[in-house]
Amino acid sequence: MTTTHDTGPDPRPALVAEDLVVEYPAGHGRTVHAVSGVGLEVAAGETLGILGESGCGKSSVGRSLIQLPPPGSGTVRLGTTTLTGLAPEELRRARARIQLITQDPVSALNPRRKVKDLVWEGPSIWGNGGDTRDRDTRIDTALRDVGLDPQTVRDRRPHELSGGQCQRVCVARALLLEPEVLICDEPVSSLDVSVQAQILNLLETTVRRRGLSMVFIAHDVSVVKNVSDRVMVMYLGKVCEVLPSDGLPHEAAHPYTRLLLASLPEVQLGTTGPPGTTDAPDDAPVHTAEPPSPLDPPSGCRFRTRCPLATGRCADEEPVPREIRPGHRVACHHAEPRRNRP
Amino acid sequence: MTTPPAATGTPLLTATGVRTAFRTPRGPVRAVDGVSLSLTEGETLGVVGESGSGKSVLGRTLMGLITDGPGTTVSGSVLLGGKDVHRLTPAGRRALWGTEVAMVFQDPMTSLNPVKKVGAHLSESVRRHLGLSRADARERAVDLLRKVGIPEPARRATQYPHELSGGMRQRVVIAMALACGPRLLIADEPTTALDVTVQKQILDLLRSLTEDLRMATILISHDLATVAGRTDRVAVMYAGRLVEYADTAAVFDRPRHPYSSALIASIPRLDQPPHTLLPTIEGRPPDLLHPPAGCRFAPRCPAATDRCATEAPELAAYAGDRDAGGVVACHHPLGAAEEATV
User: Fold this and answer.
1) Structural domain boundaries of chain A?
2) pLDDT of amino acid A284
3) Whether B50 and A194 lie within 8 Å, measured CB to CB
4) Among B278, B284, B301, which would you mutate to test the A interface (most chain A Cβ atoms within 10 Å of its Cβ)?
5) Could you tell me which residues come within 8 angstroms of residue A333 by beta carbon, excluding any fewer than 6 positions away?
6) Residues in B touching A246 (Cβ below 8 Å)
């Protein structure tokens, strides 16, 4: 398995993962190759976006970062602690430093508990909030920090809150443990557009203010671009491309990233003309085939079955990520740096 | 320039003052509260709104899936091919379904029977409605699958739904809806469960089918972006009412209603630099058990005045509007001040 590293600017990254492999048994002796050799690095205070469609392994990467479940092989380091292979008790302690925010905020919260108890769940387990004197003050501050009115929501249960409010509770709960890294797995995809904007703004300001590192996993290109410093594009368990997020619209070189961009509705592209007058940004490939199954990924480059640039070499030889520009790595035999920035 | 939203030609569907309310222990929930719209042949209308805005209930009421009965009150008229859907007998309505109007639902998996082959889903309706023989129906099923772009249609017809990918399943559901040549297709969130690259394919397919078969299509979506490039007109719903109803290009270029404008602004766009804070809409939609007396958006509206709190605005043509024909329900439509001085 090849490893894909991306080089962050900070010499002491907050989170490093190397050669992650996640496989699930699929019955009948078959295996789902969800993640096949993915590496990443997140600097302190940096946000790395992971972009990909369903089945590309982005959530499996996110979950293996917090060891839920641990990856089949590969290592994950949080600061100086190696999470992979830690004893269960030590791992549980270390997990307070790396928190997960999930897609469905309503099912992430125990429906029988009140908001104040949900938010205090972490400290009550970890004992670092064992000092119960300032318990209520800390809960109130945590709720206020995520834009909720403590008076109103403290004694409510999740069903009395909207989806957006539940997601705020999840964020408050994660932050109360003062983590170093926040993993957000599709945190806004179950929310309405207007609420989505509120939660994205909340994550943005929180991460900035606290200097947190964040891994932001989503399928929506514009959302990922908006919150991330760097974007990692995944396809069928492999990394296609890693690049600074402001270069995403014009500098993306991997044919799969180009396809994703070409699939975007015009409004998100931000073209100035009336909708419907423009379509794909430029020469982006338009290919209608659907992704192959992760049960039996294609040989060589996994995107070759849908790729307009594919040649015989792509079937035989797996492309090794190469740096085409500082901080921009592409795993493709044929991708060239693009210079059509307006 | 732009075609006026006022329907030209004979309308296929005319809905006037449609109201749908559900009886609940706490009082009636007015999910749709006085919606009028019309569609002509070959036209695509987008109905956009957030969750709870009544867009799906509207779609179902237009089709006659929700009718006056125990627990539900429907008033107003829905004329479809000259007949009022809500004055027909249940058998009369069934005769309309499939041939006059058909629906595509959000989740292709639950729209298909898991223990029936793909071909059987299609031949069932053509045998029932068009009275074809078994062999003719089978042939027709394969034709339909070909029409919606399914490769190897003859083989696919003998497979079960679980053997198909999500995008393929949605194509089958579209083929089912088209089986009896409906004049109106109502697609309720047809691409929400699909990946971006597949989403584009399905929307393109719906668009080309609408044109080729000279149908009218209603595309219901929470996602403004999917509606933008693919519809002729857009109806924006808020809390059971239409707030703006105009040409798609006009709505996206210069939205007149503060809600439409805020909704469009809150979509993250690819041309914004990373870490841009998104404009949000404060507050949440009103409780439909007790909607505000005046304009339903007034409590969240930055431009609201005393008048908005007491007097509900009617949909009216916007005075002096260059995009003639658009209507907006607002006492203070956007752009009024600067245009008065021109």
Assistant:
1) 13-97+179-330, 114-176
2) 44
3) yes
4) B278
5) A301, A311, A313, A314, A317, A319
6) 273-274
**How far is residue B339 from each of residues B1, B302, B321, B322, measured CA to CA in Å?**
20, 19, 9, 10
Q: What's the one-letter identity of residue A59?
A: S
User: B170 near B191, Cβ under 8 Å?
Assistant: yes
pLDDT in tens, B125-146: 888 888 889 999 999 999 999 8
What is the C-alpha to C-alpha distance for residues B327 and B332, in angstroms, rounded to an integer?
13
Measured between beta carbons, the chain A residues lying within 8 angstroms of B167 are 290
Confidence of residue A255 (pLDDT cuts 50, 70, 90): very high
Tell me the longest C-alpha to C-alpha distance in chain A: 68
**What does chain B come to in residues?**
342
A98: its two tokens: 């790396």
Contact (CB, 8 A) for B7 and B15: no
**What's the CATH number for A13-97+179-330?**
3.40.50.300
Portion 192-211 of B in contact with A at CB < 8 A: 195-201
Reduce the DSSP state of residue B328 to 3 states and report it: strand
pLDDT digits (tens, 9 = 90+) for A195-224: 889 899 999 999 999 999 999 999 989 999
Q: How far is A257 from chain B (nearest CA, A)?
A: 11
From B253, B280, B284, residue closest to A162, measured CB to CB: B284
Beta carbons of B222 and A192 less than 8 Å apart: yes
The answer to whether the beta carbons of residues A304 and A319 sit under 8 Å apart is no
pTM above 0.80, yes or no: yes
Q: At what angle do helices A115-126 and A163-175 cross, to 10 degrees?
A: 20
Q: How do strand A213-218 and strand A47-51 relate by DSSP bridges?
A: parallel
What's the CA gap between A247 and A240, in Å, rounded?
Answer: 15
A270 touches chain B (CB under 8 A): yes
Provide the 10 A C-beta neighbour count for residue A32.
Answer: 19
Sign, CA dihedral B309-B23-B16-B233, equals positive
Question: Does pLDDT of A317 surpass 80?
Answer: yes
If you average pLDDT over residues A84-104, what whole number do you get? 90
Q: How confident is the model at residue A18 (pLDDT cuts 50, 70, 90)?
A: very high
Yes or no, beta carbons of B50 and A249 under 8 Å apart: no
Contacts of residue A250, Cβ cutoff 8 Å, sequence gap at least 6: A281, A338, A340, A341, A342
* Residue A7, SS3 per DSSP: coil
